[in-house]
C-alpha cells in the first residue's frame, strides 16, 4: 500500500512550535555578466540565460530567469536584470543555473553555481560566483548584491538583553526546526 503524504506544511509546524517564520533579511541581486563559460554548442553561438532558484521556508520554490543574451556565447552580458528575495535563513542555498536557449529543442545546461546566502551578509557589492559542470570549473558569474538584515547592529544594541535573547532563540529555533522537519520528512518517506 502507498503511504499517504503528510497534510501539514513546514510553515504550520514552525508556527505550531512557536518559531518565527519572519525572514532573516532582504536580498536585492543584479545579474551582470559571466565569463569563460563552457561551450555546449557545436555549431553557432550560445544564447545564455540565468535561472535562479531557492526554496522558501514554506517549501515553495523561488524562480527568476534573465532574458537570454543573444549570441552571448562564452562571455555574456545582461542589461542589469535584478530580483528581490526574502531570505529565510543565511544557511539556505541559492542556485544559479546557466542554460543555452534553444529555439528548436530543449534548452541545454551550460553550468551551475551554488552558494549560501551567508556570502552576502555584510558584503554588499560585486561577487564572483564560481560555476561548474560535472564537477569541473566552467566559468564565473558576476553579480551585485545588497542584503538588508531584518535587524541591523544599532537596532540589536538598542534592544534589551531579553529581546536579543528572543531574537537569537527564534533564529536558532527556526534553523533547528527546519533541519528536524527535513530529517523527519525523509524518514516518513522511507517507511
Our measurement of the CA-to-CA distance between the termini, rounded to an integer number of angstroms, reads: 11 Å
Strand order of the largest sheet: 4-1-8-7
The ordered H/E elements are: HEEEEEEEEHH
The share of residues in helices is 10-25%
Characterize the largest beta sheet: strand count, sense, and whether it forms a barrel: 4 strands, antiparallel
Supply Rg: 20 Å
Estimated share of beta-strand residues: 35-45%
Low-confidence stretches: 3-20
Please tell me the overall pLDDT.
77
Report on the structure:
This protein has helices at residues 10-16, 153-158, 161-190; strands at 25-35, 48-55, 61-65, 82-87, 93-100, 108-116, 125-133, 136-149. The chain is an alpha+beta fold and 191 residues long. The N and C termini lie close together (11 Å).
Summarize the structure.
This protein is α+β, with helices and mostly antiparallel strands. It has three helices and eight strands, in the order αββββββββαα.
Strands, helices and their partners?
Layout: H1 10-16, E1 25-35, E2 48-55, E3 61-65, E4 82-87, E5 93-100, E6 108-116, E7 125-133, E8 136-149, H2 153-158, H3 161-190
Antiparallel strand pairs: 1-4, 1-8, 2-3, 2-5, 5-6, 7-8
Highlighted features:
191 residues; alpha+beta; 4-stranded antiparallel sheet; 3 helices; 8 strands
Amino acid at each position: 500500500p502507498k503511504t499517504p503524504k503528510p497534510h501539514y506544511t513546514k510553515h504550520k509546524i514552525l508556527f505550531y512550535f512557536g518559531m518565527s517564520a519572519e525572514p532573516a533579511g532582504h536580498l536585492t541581486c543584479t545579474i551582470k555578466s559571466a565569463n569563460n563559460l563552457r561551450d555546449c554548442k557545436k555549431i553557432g553561438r550560445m544564447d545564455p540565460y540565468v535561472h535562479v532558484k531557492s526554496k522558501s521556508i514554506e517549501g515553495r520554490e523561488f524562480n527568476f530567469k534573465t532574458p537570454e543574451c543573444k549570441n552571448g556565447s562564452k562571455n555574456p552580458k545582461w542589461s542589469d536584470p535584478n530580483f528581490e528575495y526574502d531570505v529565510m535563513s543565511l544557511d539556505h542555498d541559492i542556485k544559479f543555473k546557466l542554460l543555452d536557449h534553444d529555439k528548436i529543442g530543449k534548452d541545454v545546461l551550460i553550468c551551475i553555481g551554488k552558494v549560501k546566502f551567508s556570502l552576502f551578509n555584510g558584503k554588499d557589492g560585486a561577487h564572483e560566483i564560481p560555476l561548474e559542470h560535472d564537477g569541473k570549473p566552467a566559468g564565473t558569474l558576476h553579480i551585485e548584491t545588497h542584503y538588508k538584515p531584518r535587524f541591523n547592529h544599532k537596532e540589536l544594541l538598542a534592544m534589551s538583553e531579553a529581546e536579543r535573547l528572543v531574537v537569537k532563540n527564534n533564529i536558532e529555533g527556526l534553523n533547528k526546526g527546519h533541519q528536524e522537519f527535513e530529517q523527519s520528512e525523509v524518514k516518513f518517506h522511507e517507511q
